Each structure stands twice: as C-alpha cells, then as structure tokens.
Predict the structure of DNA polymerase III polC-type.
Amino acid sequence: MMNFVAMDFETANQHPASACSLALVLVRESKIIDRFYTVINPQMAFDVQQVKVHDITAEDVAGAPTMAEVWPKIQPLFQPGMLVAAHNARFDCNVMKQSLARYGIAEPHYLVLDSLKVSRELEPGLDNYQLNTVSDLLGVELWHHHNALSDSEACAGILLKEEEKRGSELLKKFVYQV
C-alpha cells in the first residue's frame, strides 16, 4: 500500500519562483483521500506564453495568498520521511524550493517519487513521456492538462496504476531524497 502526496505547480513565467497555482493530492493506503488546490500570487509578471498553457492570469491571483502564506498550511506534508510525487519532479521540487527561498523560508527535505522517471523505465517505447501520453496509456483520467489539480490527480493515478500492475516494492527503487 502506498502513502504519498502528489504535487503539481504552474508558474507565471519562466522563473522557478513564480508559482501561480499549486495542487496536492493526498494518497493513503493506495487511495486518494484528500485534495488541496490554490492559486498563488507570485508577485511577478505573467508571461503570455505561460498564460496560454494554464489559463491563469494576473487578475486571477490578485487577491490570492503568496507562497509564504500558503506554506504554513501545507508544510506538515513536506517533512523528512514523507513521500512526495510529481511528474517531472525536478521542476516541481525546484519551484517549491525557489518559491520558498524568495521569502527566506528554508528548503524542506522530503522523499521524492517521479512518475516521469517511473514511466520511462516501466513503459518503454512511448513517443514521449508527457503526462497526457502516460495517462492515456494507463487509462488514467486527465480532465484538464496544465490545471495543477488535474495534473496532480493524474500523477497519483499513474503511480497507483503502476503499483497495481507491478507492486509497491518495485516503485521504491525510484525514491530519492531532496
């Protein structure tokens, strides 16, 4: 049985400290039991290309909390020994790190499981390993690609499908510490 939090960020621009939305999907005993979604005011300009990807604008986040204000609500999930999953985790972990550093908040340390790396190794031969491609292959719903909540749910779904097919022991070899 797997216990983890699937995480996804969207950013306002190319700067990793520009988080403009965050979703977390809590998985306990291989079941999704809770979801968290918020827009975030990055206090930075939005790039038109990024807006085209996720459809979040400066107006959408004008009254939203900053990452410094969101952090106390989610911080208990980012502790040593806690498992956090993401699709292309290097991106999401860096957004977390840089968005917190911007406010002088220390980088959290936690365990990471990257569904992109898992998919590349366990599902060879795909044209690409984008979230939508892997979701389609495994029959995981992705209701709105680049919506942080949809992407987090799909990441969780991919890992749960792989656990169902192959067992959780195999997935443990992909876990690393940040």
Observations:
- The chain has one domain: 4-177.
- The radius of gyration is 16 Å.
- The chain has a mean pLDDT of 98.
